[in-house]
Write a structure and sequence with these properties.
mainly alpha, 11 helices, 82% helix
Length: 262
């Protein structure tokens, strides 16, 4: 009969034999737990900020929604690049190419910084496209300097976070987000709204400070990361080496890595 276009992909889509590798499956589940709580935490943070904006007034609540859209437009390209680079780091670590992985990670932070600066500048016209009223335009323009100032640092932090995920250090990046949310974003936003009676700029400042704190913590952990240990864990998750090999610190592809670097 006629071969369907997806026949060659059936194995990858429906094959469940990978779950037979109990060690790898367990490792993946462990990796997903902190990431799951991290996503839940982000939803809680957004819910609290939305409630505070609604307390300030309908205009502030509208601006917060528009601001989130603009911020996502600024952040989507640098974050996507950082996420793709994180997968590339995993690729090199799985092959034992630690030097190559470190090179990719360093370039990710540098390129992400430049890309973020460009996106922050080009986003200004979007304010006049998304906002139908002059008062909303004025309020959005008042928050833009906060975002433009901290976005490059946030992008570097996102890049460092993706590298930490590649090194199987998700719990550290999740911990950074916990601290930034409960010690900075929510308390500062609540204080600026309920005590100082500040407008949407107070909430914007709270989000920027919280994101910056998270980025600083992720970047600090990135520079102190044990790459050799992370490479072994990455190989375990991807089923490249056995637990016995990892217990004595053995890696593979050492000769291939030496030849490629040379």
């Amino acid at each position: 009969g006629k071969k369907r276009w997806f026949d060659e992909y059936k194995g990858g889509l429906f094959d469940v034999s990978a779950t037979a590798n109990i060690s790898a499956t367990t490792s993946l589940i462990k990796k997903s737990i902190p990431l799951t709580f991290e996503e839940i935490l982000g939803e809680i943070e957004w819910l609290v900020l939305t409630a505070l904006a609604a307390y300030q007034g309908p205009a502030e609540a509208t601006v917060l929604i528009l601001l989130s859209m603009i911020w996502e437009i600024i952040d989507v390209a640098p974050s996507s690049y950082a996420e793709a680079a994180g997968y590339r780091v995993i690729h090199h670590l799985s092959k034992g190419q630690m030097a190559m992985a470190q090179a990719v990670a360093s370039k990710t932070l540098a390129v992400g910084f430049v890309w973020s600066c460009v996106c922050s500048i080009l986003v200004v016209p979007l304010i006049f496209i998304l906002s139908p009223e002059n008062i909303l335009e004025v309020m959005l323009l008042g928050t833009l300097p906060y975002i433009a100032l901290v976005q490059p640092m946030i992008t570097i932090g996102v890049g460092a976070e993706n590298v930490l995920h590649a090194l199987c250090m998700e719990r550290f990046s999740a911990r950074a987000n916990y601290f930034s949310t409960f010690l900075m974003t929510i308390p500062f936003g609540t204080l600026m709204t309920l005590y100082f009676n500040y407008n949407i700029e107070g909430l914007t400042a709270a989000m920027c400070l919280g994101s910056t704190l998270s980025s600083v913590l992720n970047l600090s952990t990135y520079y102190r990361a044990d790459w050799e240990r992370g490479m072994i864990k990455c190989q375990e998750v991807n089923g490249v080496i056995t637990n016995e090999d990892a217990s004595v610190g053995e890696t593979i592809y050492e000769e291939d890595v030496t030849n490629e670097i040379a």
